[in-house]
Amino acid sequence: MKDTGMIRSLDSLGRIVIPVEIRNARNIEIGDAVEFFVLDDDILVLRKYTSTECVFCQSMESVTYYKDQFICSSCLQELAGVQNLTPIAPQPQAKKRAKTSELIQRLRKAFEEHPGATQKELANILGISQGRISQLKKEM
Length: 140
Hints:
single chain; alpha+beta; Arc Repressor Mutant, subunit A; two-stranded antiparallel ribbon; two-stranded antiparallel sheet; 5 helices; Lambda_DNA-bd_dom_sf
């Protein structure tokens, strides 16, 4: 374990603040229970408290310790029965925005092909907003 070398003072009520770097590294959230141990009369050990309840359903009956977590027998059976999981589809990528110069060229072409078109119609043709058509017309 790496030494952090941080020093904290006790407040007037005897409390100490655990630095955010340590809380993040040890996965300690605000409100989590913390255990204290005294070793060899001069070493104070602090760790996140892990109760003996199931990590999934908070049941206290017939729990098994597995990889730093307690899991009850019913949740364990449920996990064992889950074999054919369907992967979660990745979120679709956001559309790439066209460069202004490309949009101006497309707008000029749309003007040539549809000389009497309104801004709303041009926006539908190009797949952009009517306000963007107005902006592009000012830049032309």
